[in-house]
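Protocol step 4 of 6: structure prediction from sequence.
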Amino acid sequence: MEEAVRGMEEADPGSSDAASATHEFNRQLACVRWLKDCMLHPSLEAGLSGALHAESSGHLVEPAVRLAAALPLRASHGIMGDALVYGHVAAGQVLWKLVLAMRLTLAEMRAAEQLRSDARAAQKDGGRSQGVSGGEQSPADIDDGVQGGSGCSDEGGSGAASSTSRKRSSQHFEERRAAAWQVVQLLLPRMEAVLCLAQAQAEPRCSLDVACICQNFAVALSLFVRDGNTFDLGPITSEEQVSALAEAACAALRLLPRLAQIHDSWQQQTPAAASWIADQQGAPALLAFLLFNNMFCMASVRSAAVAKQICGTGLSAAAAASLAGGLLRLHNLSCCMVHWLATAGRRSTLLPEMFGEKEEAPIDWHRVIAVVGSLRSVICLLLKAAGMGGTSASPSSSWRHMEVLHQAHQEAVQVAIAAEISLQPSSADATSLLTRCSAIALFSTAKYCPQLLAVDSGFASLLVQSILAQAGSSSAPLLEAAYEARDSAQLAALLAATGLLGGLLEETRALGGDGGSTVEKKGMDRLLLFAGVMLQLEQAGLDVAAALDGSPAGGRSDADQQQQQQQQRDALQKELQAALTRMQAAWAEAQRGGQPLPLAGRAELYQREAMPAAIELGALLQQYWSLPEQVAAAELKLAEIAACRPCAHLRCPRLDTTSGDSRNKLCAGCRAVRFCSPACSKAAWKAGHKRVCGALAAKQQLR
């Protein structure tokens, strides 16, 4: 096998001596075919099992993986496509046979180990029963007792043999896991191209080859499975391993649309063709199930958890930025998967198989959003470790990444909730997607993309729902919202205008009667948060009042409209200045009056004196941000953030593109954003790009 691998790796069909290279490559394909025929021959079964027992299993499986990875992905220079597909199928069957043999060998090792363990336990139990039987010993009994030393020696030998067996079993499993990593790193990124190559062949050979390729790869992925259905990636401790795992999860996601297309096309076959396809159609479904549940969900959660641990040990800024980059690509592709599931994927017959559900609503949105949320959380930690710097007006690289991350994330959450509601409109299950993790992500979005509150009423509504959904069971969402609102004027105004800010005071009053230092600390924390939000609200009022006083109304409207808009701004400026003055006075008076009072009394005073003025000021601030020129500025800012994405359409469902794909075309109007397809370009235009295209073009010309 090593010789076949070396020959395949050294073969160069694209060399200048095309005829000679083609001849050599075809000779190597013949070797692969011979190897496959030998491997599948029944007479080799016992010898293969014996070889795996006696030697390192990695010596056989590792070359098989390399052999499959060495085959080219495109026919050229006399190499026929069907011959190349046959090579991929044959190499996959060699790997498939070795994987099954490896799994069987490990099972046999563990079964034998268990038998020896049971035998030792039975022997010990038998010895104890003889020792407590009582009565006089006969000479024969005494002789047996004297000879017991030989029994102990046998037991010691058995223990040594068992220890050796356990070591071999452990070594065998480690080699199996190493082979699994090779499959993921060498073969998984090539799978889509291999399937595309097979699909280009004529029927019925095409479907049989595709089914065989899917089956072979699904079996190869089972190398990660141990003890029944446990998916075990083994120890992951380095940034390199996390990055490799993130890339594997991306490759798994890119395969899903192709597998769905294969599965759906087979479902639509004529009755005559369906008879032989029926036995094959489970292969794409099984592969999709393994890719989604193991190589995406479990691998993503594991990579996020390990990245969080690594970040806690202290990473350099460069290492944190590098690790964040790989996880950002995975998060972006995960959001695309959400949009694919909500559109084209939702109509696929593959979905019930992929999620393991047979009901009318096969998509487990709770699990999907939880996985995407775990990625967002650790990326935030890594970007902060990389050094945020800058501001929203002059963002650093990490700050811009944070904006892109949260803009994409909130769009995915909104789509998932809408999809859940459309399936169960009379159910409250959709609001259960607003877990604490989801709520924190939304509040963080309001901090890094505050413009969304001005242009997207759905996002503002979602923020309010995320607090109210858990109001009866947990105060954590409100506390998290208030924490972020101390640095976000728009979020502070939303909490004030809706009255949700007063919830901090109500909680303090409820805690006040219980007494105790812990309870008192909780109450004080809530009052401090309230004071922080009030400070942000006051500063926002000062900034907006200055902006209204010093700048004219914008826009391209005619003179009458401009005059009307200016009158509206003047009126708003007067109202806001008066409301700001009232709030400053009320808040100062409440703070003075509350000093001698206990926490509960202080909270009640704040509620009575300061909250009405805060509600009024918050509503006026929201009114300012809804002015036409403010909405236009917010839309332009969001468009600049979206321009940093591979596809600027926030609901792009494409999974088969990579970051920076050269196929993504610049918008012909602004030359500032890219779209992966005409469909995404049209959808983005309708969603609002038409309102900012001209402004983006103007800014582009100034650079």
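Step 5 (inspection) to follow. Residues 235-453 form one domain.
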